[in-house]
Amino acid sequence: MTTQYVEDYWKDKIGGDCVVCTFYDLRIAHNLSESEVDEFLQLSRNKLENNGYDVYFTGAKYKYHGVEKVVETNQYIVAIKDGAKN
Questions:
Q1: Which end of the chain has less Cβ packing within 10 Å, N or C?
Q2: Residue 35: inside a domain
Q3: 9 three-state secondary structure
Q4: What value does the mean pLDDT take over residues 4-25?
Q5: Distance (Å, whole) CA 19 – CA 33
């Protein structure tokens, strides 16, 4: 897993209020192993936080436009842009 891979993955997704990374996208579409997914998630957290997102992982509660939600079991990451919570 490289930082370039993470950069390429997020480059078209970053910019909206909410970005999501799913199990299907990483494990099926990109054929990543569990260890590669773990490394991807660590690098992604840094990337997203540096771009002004709050990052939530599977099972975590978060608010989006004032509605409380939970990161679903088929989602690895939900990232909410600062200011989009209320």
A1: C
A2: yes
A3: helix
A4: 94
A5: 22
pLDDT in tens, 34-71: 999 999 999 999 999 999 999 999 999 999 998 999 99
CATH number at residue 60: 3.30.56
Is the Cα torsion angle 41, 82, 62, 22 positive or negative in sign?
negative
- Structurally, how many domains does the chain consist of? 1
d(CA 66, CA 59): 18
Q: Is the pLDDT of residue 84 over 80?
A: no
Q: In terms of DSSP H, where are the helices of the chain? A: 3-10, 23, 34-50
Q: Is 68 helix (H, G, I), strand (E, B) or coil?
A: strand
The boundaries of the domain holding residue 38 are 3-81
Amino acid at 5: Y
Task: Evaluate whether residue 86 is within a structural domain.
Answer: no
